[in-house]
Specification:
This protein is an alpha/beta fold and 347 residues long. It is built from 12 helices and 13 strands. It has one domain: TIM Barrel. It has a 4-stranded parallel beta sheet, covered by helices on one side. The longest helix is centred in the first third of the chain and has 14 residues.
Length: 347
């Protein structure tokens, strides 16, 4: 009961717009980044998910950011909110269902840029992976879509940082929504637009990070994947960016990289040289994303055959900590904190 009272207090401060300044943060140890909050335990990108992550000891909470029609940044995994809200249950918005091609991929649904913030606030969040996380679906319909400003207020009041991702920045700029400028405006309003702010800004694109490098001293993280290439066409492939030469180029504008964890060690395979090569280029390394379900774990770390059952996520995290990563993203912050602290104690 005490834990639930504390969670309620955290949410109360967030909803009240708490603006207390967070204190100094220890970034000398590997940081635990709560991926979309404690998204393994609550619907992602909700204040409840972020509040639980804070209670479990995360160092940073991670919102993916997309704009509304009136240029307010909100936390959603994608601008298509068909699967993460109850928008389909709102007949007043039925005529806004449409298809769009974004970064070469066509999707059908409802998109944040077609709604004002006031309209989005009438919707409620839903679990994105109900088949794998049925317990999370019990919270469907309880939580609003938070703004980036609300997420910052929550973080500032509880001595944690924010790790926002600018989603599809080239696409949004092309339709009149300058998301990079909006991110900096929200951070500046909070007093967090400096080199020592507890903030990392991340992107899978390159050119927007290069622009941000000229506009802010906030630390920037270049996201890279095991396959594909940046949507802005600024590099031929993520694989080319992960070479020693490519990493040196990233170091010209970014503080670090956020690689798919499989690029460091895929399952039970022999580890790659990516961590060592990135460190040689002067870059921090924050891999994504560690999840507890068997479905996401290598065979050696699964418990049983149910894909929804939880395996040994802490050992999966320990494997990359042993390779020297500087932090990691996880849907299960408590497991991340325990794995990190056990690693430090053993070291």
């Amino acid at each position: 009961m005490r834990r639930w009272r504390r969670l309620g207090a955290i949410l109360t401060l967030a909803l009240a717009g708490w603006t207390g300044q967070a204190g100094a943060m220890d970034t000398t140890r590997p940081i635990v980044i709560a991926h979309r909050g404690a998204s393994g335990l609550r619907p992602e990108h909700t204040l409840a998910s972020y509040a639980l992550a804070i209670e479990q000891g995360a160092d940073f909470i991670e919102p993916d950011l997309v704009p509304t029609r009136d240029n307010v940044l909100v936390a959603r995994h994608e601008n298509n909110i068909a699967d993460t809200t109850d928008v389909a249950d709102h007949p007043e918005f039925a005529d806004r269902r449409t298809s769009k091609t974004i970064d070469g991929v066509t999707a059908t649904g409802w998109f944040t840029e077609d709604f004002t913030l006031a309209e989005l606030k009438t919707l409620r969040a839903r679990e994105r992976l109900p088949q794998l996380r049925p317990d999370n679906a019990a919270y469907d319909g309880l939580f609003e879509i938070p703004t980036f400003a609300e997420v910052i207020a929550l973080a500032r009041g509880h001595n944690v940082g924010v790790y926002p991702e600018t989603k599809h920045p080239t696409y949004f700029a092309s339709i009149g929504h300058p998301t990079d400028a909006l991110v900096l405006a929200d951070l500046t309003a909070a007093g967090w637009n400096s080199a020592d702010a507890p903030v990392f800004i991340q992107s899978f694109e390159i050119d927007n990070l290069k622009r941000l490098h000229t506009q802010t001293r906030v630390r920037l993280i270049q996201l890279i994947d095991a396959d594909g290439a940046p949507a802005d066409g600024a590099a031929p492939s993520y694989a080319a960016m992960a070479t020693p030469e490519g990493l040196r180029a990233i170091a010209e504008y970014a503080h670090g990289i956020g690689p798919n964890k499989d690029m460091i060690r895929k399952g039970d395979a022999v580890p790659s040289r990516l961590v060592a090569d990135a460190h040689a280029a002067g870059l921090k390394v924050h891999p994504w994303t560690f999840r507890a379900e068997n479905f996401f774990l290598p065979a050696s770390l699964r418990h049983g055959i149910d894909p929804r059952a939880h395996g040994d996520i802490q050992q999966a995290i320990a494997r990359v900590l042993e390779l020297g990563v500087d932090g990691f993203f996880t849907d299960f912050p408590l497991d991340g904190v325990q794995a990190r602290d056990r690693f430090i104690a053993g070291r």
